[in-house]
Amino acid sequence: MNHYPPRIGPPAGAPSQRLNELLDQIRAEFETESNRSVDYEGQITRHIQEIEMIRGKVYSLEQQHVQVKAKYEEEIARLQRELEARGGPSQNSQHHGPSQPPPPSIGHGPSNLFGGIMAGNNQGGPGLAPPPQETQQPGGLPPHLGAGPQGPPGLNPAPGPPQHFGGYGGSAPSMNGYGQPPQPTASPGGKRPGPGPRGPPGPATPQQNSAAPYPGSPQVPRPTPPPHQQHPLGPPGGPPLRESNILADLDLESLPANLKKEEQDWFAVFNPRARRVLDVELVHNLPHQSVVCCVRFSADGRYVATGCNRSAQIFDVETGNPIAHLQDTSLPEDGDLYIRSVCFSPNGQYLATGAEDKVIRVWDIASRTIKHQFTGHEQDIYSLDFAKNGRIIASGSGDRSVRLWDLETNQQVSNFSIEDGVTTVAISPDSRFVAAGSLDKSVRVWDIHTGSLVVRLEGEQGHKDSVYSVAFAPSGDRLVSGSLDKTIKMWELTTPSRLIPGAAPSGKCIRTFEGHKDFVLSVALTPHGDWVLSGSKDRGVQFWDPHTGVAQLMLQGHKNSVISVAPSPTGGIFATGSGDMRARIWKFDRYTGP
């Protein structure tokens, strides 16, 4: 019988207590490390988030720096252009030119409807005087309504020594932006206006001056746009509509050949963000002896009339030759007397002129004689329009009125009074309505036959500054307006039906055209309503698509503000009048290039 020694250790099948302890220790260490790993992951995630936040802040600061730098460079370029346009550095450290003698006032009361409107406009631009300081006028009037010798904010200053500024001819740098602080104006005879009723301020007499070179000419080096604007197509993603319409910001040198046109003394740029469908060409350059305040075509498109100091002139559109020189020889030869508006009768037989002496003259073109004279306005006449029926003339004046005159009876037939000076009038194509723009930022439309106010276009949708120009669309149910707020607006008119008693008239803004760099002084539509034209204090003419509000092209050729634009009723031709003492005739046609 075998005997085995007794077994040493735990009985068979019993768990090893030591092994379990080791396993528990390992498990505990693993869990501890796992928890630490989770903590580390959380810390790493937080660090990554902090790094991303810092990166975002750095990027934001970098973008702000780029924008600030771009604005700084743009401001320097603007000041350099302004300095060069004035022919040298400012003559004193105050940026105020020497005091200038006030321009003469025609008739009683202040003749300064547009005076001082630059006050309060704190943005500069090519050729602009330094932003004026806010000054309070006597009687508590805001600066842009105070009387004084300032001229209309139509023109850019010229190079060379300061001259007699104060009107369309330019503006010396001064506290009010026009060459002298507000003060009473003198009449041609040297007498100050005496006490008594005084009308609203009116535009000072335009003054002649040497014009500044057009932007882009050899005399004015083209400014280099800020870095974010150097590419002709703008930043990736595309700018909003307003920015894409500011064609003056395009770098001419970097634009492809099909998006620009450069000639000896003018150039055009075409919107890179719109399909080019137009071409433009200069036809005639018509020098004048003074500022050209207005241009207008005859109904058959054969002639264009211009208004300047003391005379109106008529030119043959095809040849550019002068046809007639209309001047009232019964007036004294001394002093200025600017023709602010001209308008052909529909049959082309007559030319109506409105002037600073408050008189409307209707000239028989063939005999060069005055057939009618209408008097009654108490301030300068700034705008005229002939009704298509050839019988009624509408006039707008600084005396706060729109008046209608009948050529057959040689009498005034209507007088529509408003609260502020009237700057522009237009009669609808069906001769039923007359529209007027005013210093009070409103556009009003009256029914000619009933004399009732049909609609007043203003408010949140309206202009933010004085309205300088209105024009009906060929359809008659829309009109466009140009303003000192640098915009053009298109209005849709819904007039009450005569078959529906009590129907309320209405009008709404359906489109705003933004892109001009300065005051919009004149607007018009081509004969079929295909394009909106505008002229501005920024010296540019722009064509706009009326259906989209997109600018098609910008034309730069005049060396001073474009005061007046007018399309030919026969199409394909338009004219411009400027403070550079020139009128120009241009043609536009469909673009046939690549």
TrEMBL record:
WD repeats lie at residues 339-373, 374-415, 422-456, 460-501, 513-545, 555-589. Residues 18-86 form the Transcriptional repressor Tup1 N-terminal domain. One of its GO terms (cellular component) is nucleus. Keywords: Repeat, Repressor, Transcription, Transcription regulation, WD repeat. PROSITE patterns: WD_REPEATS_1 (PS00678), WD_REPEATS_2 (PS50082), WD_REPEATS_REGION (PS50294). Residues 150-162, 194-204, 215-239 have a biased composition (Pro residues). Residues 85-244 are annotated as: Disordered. This is Transcriptional repressor rco-1. It comes from Paraphaeosphaeria sporulosa. The lineage of its organism: Eukaryota, Fungi, Dikarya, Ascomycota, Pezizomycotina.
